[in-house]
Design brief:
This protein has about 90 residues and is mainly β. The chain has no helices and ten strands. The radius of gyration is 12 Å and the shape is globular.
Length: about 90
């Protein structure tokens, strides 16, 4: 069974599933700025669109485009800005 998660007044929607090797989510983020917290190590890959991310312990924002990935450690917070609907795949270790 899939787990459907909705955040920020449904501006971020994800579907959780068991990937081949790791638990995963695939989702869509609507334009805006959001802050997320992690409970597990996450690897996020942009599928469509792009997102600008401020990673933990960084003062800089970096933009990730289609097929680019970034990692966030467990127990951390990170910020995301998107200017267009953006799809992503996230795996959890």
């Amino acid at each position: 069974m899939f787990a459907i998660n909705k955040y920020f007044d449904e501006k971020v929607v994800s579907v959780g599933f068991q990937g081949r090797e790791l638990p995963s989510t695939v989702g869509i983020i609507s334009p805006g700025e959001y802050q997320f917290d992690t409970s597990k190590h996450e690897t996020m890959t942009v599928i469509s669109g792009e997102m600008t991310v401020k990673l933990p312990n960084s003062d800089d924002w970096a933009t990730y485009k289609e097929q680019q990935s970034f990692e966030i450690p467990a127990g951390a917070a990170f910020s995301v800005r998107v200017d267009m609907d953006t799809a992503y795949l996230c795996t959890y270790a």
